[in-house]
Design goal:
Blueprint lengths: L4 E7 L14 E4 L2 H9 L11 E3 L17 H9 L4 E11 L18 H13 L3 H10 L3
Parallel strand pairs: 1-4
Antiparallel strand pairs: 1-3, 2-4
Length: 142
Amino acid sequence: MRLKHVMFKFTKEETELNLSVVNPPKIVEGTSLQLIEELYDSDFPAGSPTIKLYAVELFKDVAFTEGIIYEDGLFFYEMIDKITKISLIDSKSYYYRTTENSTLTSKISKKNLDVLKKNRLTENFLEKYPEALGQFYQEHAI
């Protein structure tokens, strides 16, 4: 099977950029749930759609939910559901630049409540994996 997903690391400090890959990539294989667990246990930013290369065919049935912010979390789950192998490249190859009026730097407004919509959509998606949903609630219970 052809590799369909490659992940890098990012930095917010331009001086930390490393555009040369020093170590060979780590190939991670498994079910969607195994990949999610592996990514959340790593120091790779799993939920972010940036710093990744995707095979174009993965976008056939997956798209960002329009009209809400924080949609990248749902996109991550829908995308990872389509793959069984990821290449993790231990290189800070992406400079993460923040801008004014971005979700990360803007003041809190009613639009920030979109995170609730995103969480509801993510929960609906994860219902096809009841064991993962139960585990998620156990690990993230307040």
